[in-house]
Amino acid sequence: MASLKELKLRIGSVKSTQKITKAKQMVAAAKLRKAQAAAEAARPYSSRLEAVVASLASKIAGGSGEGASPLLAGTGKDDVHLLVVANSDRGLAGAFNANIVKAARAKADELIQQGKTVRFYLIGRKGRPVINRTFPGMIVAQFDTTGVKEPGYAQAEEIARELTNMYLNGKFDVAHLFFSRFKSALAQIPTEQQIIPVKIPADADRNAIGATVEYEPSEEAILDDLLPRNVTVQIFKALLENNASEQGASMTAMDNATRNAGDLINKLTIQYNRSRQAAITTELVEIISGAEAL
């Protein structure tokens, strides 16, 4: 049984931890409002741009006509798949990072069973240990975000440029982006999105614009400009969604940790009081016994 001194030290230690988790919860809650607003503001733009690109692509012989951009037409192969896994650099966010990695691992296992070659491109560092242990030697590159406080368009441009260069140099045939879509502070949804080449829905032309449009310059020329921008925008959206999801998961995790610390403090306090009462009772018995002996 722990001594009174040990119990007192444990109570003090848990109280210190509770102060830290409470402070981190409040910080995450403050950051969440801004991150959520940014993520929600990016959704209409990214989805509309994706729809316009798909509509234009559907006009070019199904997206595989002569002169179509490689970002649209593809390499003509489906052998090498690059899984772009967006994680954070920090922990204390519950299962936020683990869920994204789990989705990427499931996709990698599926592709490997189909005989495909799988490679990983990592954004952030939290997912690296698990992926490197599960798929050794398959990480081809990593984008360092340790110095980035909030995701910006510049980082998305840099990532998109690097991925596009890898694609044009024949490093992979298809790129899948994995991130966590923000739903609420309690729910973040691991999401997969094919970003290279552009995936064209069957009803793209009907749903995107809804009217007959003549383009100047040609659809091909417009797509040559929009396709790289679309990759950047989709990555930027993913980074914003991830940031909001991370703050929501962190706030929830720290709230749970604060509550658990409070419960532990109550239990330790009861144990301390009982032990102290037992010690006082023992001392009183000893005093009374000594007085009677006299």
Short description:
It is built from 7 helices and 5 strands; from the N terminus they run H-H-E-H-E-H-E-H-E-E-H-H.
Describe this structure in words.
By secondary structure, the chain is α/β, with parallel strands linked by helices. Helices cover 62% and strands 13% of the residues. A five-stranded mixed sheet has the order 3-2-1-4-5, with helices on both faces. The longest helix is centred in the C-terminal third of the chain and has 75 residues. It is found in: Cell membrane; Membrane. Belongs to the ATPase gamma chain family. Its main location: membrane. It is a peripheral membrane protein. F-type ATPases have 2 components, CF(1) - the catalytic core - and CF(0) - the membrane proton channel. CF(1) has five subunits: alpha(3), beta(3), gamma(1), delta(1), epsilon(1). CF(0) has three main subunits: a, b and c.
Query: What are the segments in which pLDDT stays under 50 over at least 5 consecutive residues?
Result: none
Helix/strand structural class: alpha/beta
Largest pleated sheet:
5 strands, mixed
Mean pLDDT: 86
Number-wise, the strands total 5
Q: Radius of gyration in whole Å, from Cα?
A: 28 Å
Helix content: 55-70%
> Approximately what portion of the residues adopt beta-strand conformation?
5-15%
Number of helices: 7
First and last CA, distance: 33 Å
Q: Specify the overall morphology.
A: elongated
Question: H/E element string?
Answer: HHEHEHEHEEHH
